[in-house]
Predict the 3D structure of the following.
Amino acid sequence: MPAPSVLVLDNALDHGFYRPVEHWTRLLGFEPESVYLPAAKRLPEPGRHRHVIITGSEDTITVLPAWAQAEADWIKQAAEAGTRMLGSCWGHQLIAVALSGPDSVRRSEHPEVGWFRIEVIDDDGLLPKGSFETFCSHFDEVVPGCHPDLKVLARTPACPVHAFRFGHLPIWGVQAHPEVEPEVGKEFLKGGIDKWPEHQALFEAALASPVRDSDIGRALVRNFLAF
């Protein structure tokens, strides 16, 4: 059976620090097509791929560079074409910006770095039933109630929109990084101390905390590709 038509939009700024295509390839079980957006690579025609994964990024969502604005415009067109989309972390936030506008994201009052327990309100056929634990690293977040079609699927005490579905469209966002394995997460935290020295205490606290990972990545991808 041929692999599903999957495109990964790679938003990492530094592949020496974060390699999202590599992580999502592990979960998919095959190498997807990918486009590296920070290098202003050309995006394919919207609707060409049935499934699109929009990765995280070390960038902030609150001020979009030109390449990210072009990606947001593409997401809106792909949504109109019926493309199934899944955004993770920054990609989750970018979907909200694309479909709800720039006021749909804000700086997090309580950033989440490390492993967190996430409460599932509605699994929607995508998420595990009940709660799960996974890796997170974000300083921005989606604003609850930013659009009447934004349906919250999961939350934490510090982040009220940890997963969403956009209306009845096959478009989801998850604030966490389910693609990041525990050992990769530890390296990410170590690198984060140098990359964001102003948040050194936050990264060091995360490194000192126990790893709590429910390993939901493959099930999440399998559920997504079933749509």
Summary: The helical segments are 20-28, 66-80, 90-100, 182-195, 200-208, 217-226.
